[in-house]
Amino acid sequence: MKTKAQRPRPKRFHLPQSVVDGLQPVGIGCVGAGFVFDAYMQTHHLHPWLDLRAVFDRDTARARQVKDYFGTPMVDSLEAILGDPSISIVLNLTNPSEHFAVTKALLEAGKHVYSEKPLATTVGEARALAQLAEARGLQVGCAPSSLFGEAAQTLWRALRRGQIGQPRMVIANLDEGASHHQNLAETLINPSGAKWPAWDEYRVGCTAEHAGYVLTWMVAFFGSVRRVMNYSKVFFPDKGIPIPVGEMAPDYATAMLEFENGVVAQINSSVVTPPNHGLYVVGETGYLKVDHVWPFACPVTLVQHARPWLTETVAPVSEPVWDPKGLSKPWYYRHWRLRDYLLDPADRAFGVGDDKMRGVTEFMLAIASGQPYGLGGDFSAHITEVTYAIQDGTTHAGWQDMTTRAPAVQPPPWVGG
C-alpha cells in the first residue's frame, strides 16, 4: 500500500502566496554549527528565499559532519563570512558565551545579525549590540521565533478580540523534568551527529536558554516588564558532569513579573521538576491556555469562568505549516502505530515542532521593508535583562526594577484580525 508518507505534497509557506511570489533570494551565512544547527536546517526547505552560502564552525570534525550530512557550503574561517559581499544576514548559532563577541564582529563588518538566544549574557552587552547596530544602520535580531508560530499568533489574536475580557495574569511553565537522570549528554543526538551540550547547558542555565520562549510572547502581548521578584537555586549539584558547583547555573527558578500595563505573570523554569510547558492567560471572563509553548501547531483552548466544564478550541490564524507531532490533526495521527502511515517522514523530524527559520524570514522581511524588526536589539536587550533577573536569584533580594524597555510589537501582516 502506498502511504501518505510516500505521496508528494504541495509546498506550503506561512506567508501569503502574493508575498512569496515577490521574494528574491537573500544570501545568508551561519557562524556555529552545533546542536541547534539541525533544528534550523530541518525547516530551511520552508524558506527557499534564504540562500545559505557559507557556514563556519571552528570544530573541524563537526564541520565535516555538517557538510557530509546536509551538503552545506562550509568555510574555514570567520573572516570568509565577514568578507563575503554576497552575504547580508548572518545567523549567530555559537554558544551563549560567544554571542556578544561574534555578533559585534559581524556588525562591524556590515552584516545584519540574527542571533540565537540570549542576545548576550549581560544586559550591558545586549544594549551595546543594539546601539552598535543602530549606529551602523544595521539590524540585530534574536531568537526564539516562536512568537511567529500559529499557536502564539492565535493566542494573541484572541486577546486582541477580547475573548477573555481584560487579561489579569499569566502562568507560564518551562519545566524539562529531571534531565540529569536521563543521560541526555549521551542519548540526545541530533540527526547530523552532534550530542546535546550538557556541559554548556548546565553552566549557562535552563532559564537563560528557555525563558525567552514565553517572555517574547508576554512582552509582545503586554509590553515591558516593570519589575521582577525571583527565587532560584541549584537543587541537584551532581549532574554526572564535572562542573564545579560555583560554575553551575540554577537548575530551578521561579519569579513574579509585573508588567507596565498591570498584568502579573508567574513563571517557572527548571531542568529538575516534572515536565510542563503550558501557558495560561487568565482574564476577567475566562482563560486561554496552550499546553505546549514550543510546537507552532499546538491548539489554543478557551475556557469561560462561568462554564469551566466547557472548553473551546480557538480557530487558528491559519493552518499550521510545520506540524511534526500532528497536533493540529485528529488524534489518530498521533497514535504510535499510525504515525508512520499518516505523517510525512519530513514531519517526524528532530526537535520540538518549532520552525526556527521563520524568525530569520521575518527578520529578512523587516530589513527589506526598511522597518525595524519587532524582536530587534532593544526588545532583545529587555528580554535579556528580564531573563537574568529571573535566573540570578543569588545576587538579588526583593523586587528588581528593570532598566530597559521593549518597543511595542505589532502582529505580522499575514495574521488577520
Structure write-up:
This protein has 417 residues and is an alpha/beta fold. The chain has 14 helices and 14 strands. The chain has two domains: 17-142, NAD(P)-binding Rossmann-like Domain (Rossmann fold, 3-Layer(aba) Sandwich), CATH 3.40.50.720; 147-354 and 378-401, Dihydrodipicolinate Reductase, domain 2 (2-Layer Sandwich). The protein has helices at residues 17-21, 37-41, 60-70, 78-82, 99-108, 123-135, 150-160, 184-187, 198-204, 206-210, 212-222, 339-342, 357-369, 377-391, and strands spanning 26-31, 50-56, 89-92, 112-115, 140-142, 167-175, 225-233, 252-259, 264-270, 279-283, 286-290, 300-304, 312-313, 400-401. It has a nine-stranded mixed β-sheet with strand order 13-12-11-10-6-9-8-7-14. Helix 5 (99-108) links the parallel strand 3 and strand 4 (112-115). The longest helix has 15 residues, at 377-391. The relative contact order is 0.18.
Label this structure with key terms.
417 residues, alpha/beta, Rossmann fold, Dihydrodipicolinate Reductase, domain 2, 2 domains, 9-stranded mixed beta sheet, 5-stranded parallel beta sheet
Task: Give the SSE map.
Layout: H1 17-21, E1 26-31, H2 37-41, E2 50-56, H3 60-70, H4 78-82, E3 89-92, H5 99-108, E4 112-115, H6 123-135, E5 140-142, H7 150-160, E6 167-175, H8 184-187, H9 198-204, H10 206-210, H11 212-222, E7 225-233, E8 252-259, E9 264-270, E10 279-283, E11 286-290, E12 300-304, E13 312-313, H12 339-342, H13 357-369, H14 377-391, E14 400-401
Parallel strand pairs: 1-2, 1-3, 3-4, 4-5, 6-9
Antiparallel strand pairs: 6-10, 7-8, 7-14, 8-9, 10-11, 11-12, 12-13
Helix pairs in contact: 5-6, 6-14, 11-14
